[in-house]
Amino acid sequence: MKVPQTLPEARQQIDALDEQIQTLISQRARIAQQVARIKERSGAGDGNHYRPSREAEVLRRVIERNHGPNGGPLSDESIARLMREIMSVCLSLESPLTIAYLGPEGTYTQAAVQKHFGDSVTAKPMRAIDEIFRDVETGAADYGVVPVANSIGGVVNNTLDELVHTQLRICGEVTLAVHHHLLSLTGDTETITKVYSHAQSFAQCRKWLDARLPRAEREVVSSNGEAARRAAEEGGGTAAIASLQAGRINKLNVLAANIEDELSNETRFLIVGKHDPELSGDDLTSIVMTAHRNQPGALFKLLQPLAEAGLDMTRLESRQVRGSVLPDFYFFIDFAGHATDPKVREVLDTVRGEAAFFKILGSYPRAVM
């Protein structure tokens, strides 16, 4: 296509390209509908057409093309987000999805839903993490999105506890850059006497609060969305630590932006559901186990097979067993690889034999962005 030299030429080319893009998206949507019919005729359809491994492969290719000879000025994140929305719309024609998340509206978990699934799903806010698991277990939601760890605040223990006992599988992960804002109906930090927030957000903004609002009362609530709702309801003198989206929903003013103590603040979320994703080519496996009590080197014996097999362990967390007086711990481990790979399966069988308790939480595609 000839490079336009005048504004009318540029607009004409944009109009022509818009028409082509719209035509191609419509063609893709019709093929997506046909995919659903093919699956049903072949008996492969189970009513759920969302395939995490397939979507991860598509997004990886999108990013690879962005660096190729036909790549453009858009960032990897921008081009992936555009493709995600197209995929989301097409998937909704095949199989509309309901996604349970930690509400109310405006939470970072809702932002994680939008990043992973796009906007063409029914996002269902829940009051607590255990309710998300229960909603998916009973079939009231197709998948759930739960926070599991933050780069500053550490792990989310409620999520770890639920993973031990649920029959659900980890189907995917989302990483989200988190920026906290001090929000209020007023426009002056000097008048703030109480701040609402989730416990994790307080931990992530502790230094900022200590320096600028040392005398303000801090009250922990179930989510940042709930914090924003309370700040809007109670009015003057009350503030919330929450996202810009929560501020817009509750018509709050931004008193201070990006108040997290570290700008590289990132939260990891897990997608939980009833299906085991297939190999995608870049996968993680999550397991949880306990060591035999009073055996020297018990934890080393659990980790040694992974090291000997050359498997890259990406995370290790411990959590004391609830209700246990003695120091028994669950060990949560993530490593690179898929449970269906023969090499990984052999390692897991070895670890299972050394553990007092052992459970595979899921094998799933590594987050693309």
Describe the structure.
The chain has four domains: 7-94, Up-down Bundle (Chorismate Mutase Domain, subunit A), CATH 1.20.59.10; 98-178 and 266-271, Periplasmic binding protein-like II (D-Maltodextrin-Binding Protein, domain 2); 181-256, D-Maltodextrin-Binding Protein, domain 2; 278-365, ACT domain (Alpha-Beta Plaits, 2-Layer Sandwich). The chain is 41% helix and 25% strand. It has twelve helices and 15 strands. It has helices at 7-42, 52-66, 76-94, 108-117, 129-137, 157-165, 199-204, 206-212, 224-234, 244-249, 298-308, 342-354; strands at 98-102, 122-126, 143-150, 154-155, 169-177, 181-184, 194-197, 217-220, 238-242, 253-256, 266-273, 283-290, 313-320, 329-336, 357-365. Strands 1, 2, 3, 4, 5 and 11 form a six-stranded mixed β-sheet that branches. The protein has a five-stranded mixed β-sheet with strand order 8-7-9-6-10. Helix 1 (7-42) crosses helix 3. The longest helix is centred in the N-terminal third of the chain and has 36 residues, at 7-42. The chain is globular. The chain starts with 6 loop residues before the first helix and ends with a strand. The relative contact order is 0.13. Residues 7-34 form a coiled coil. It is found in: Cytoplasm.
Q: How many individual domains? A: 4
CATH class of the largest domain: Mainly Alpha
Overall SS class: alpha/beta
Helix-strand pattern: HHHEHEHEEHEEEHHEHEHEEEHEEHE
Major sheet size, sense and barrel closure: 6 strands, mixed
Number of helical regions: 12
* The CATH topology of the largest domain: Chorismate Mutase Domain, subunit A
Average of the residue pLDDT scores? 91
Number of strands: 15
Low-pLDDT residue intervals, each spanning 5 or more residues = none
Strand content: 15-25%
C-alpha Rg, in Å?
Answer: 23 Å
CATH architecture verdict of the largest domain: Up-down Bundle
Q: What is the name of the CATH superfamily of the largest domain? A: Chorismate mutase
End-to-end C-alpha gap: 31 Å
3D shape: globular
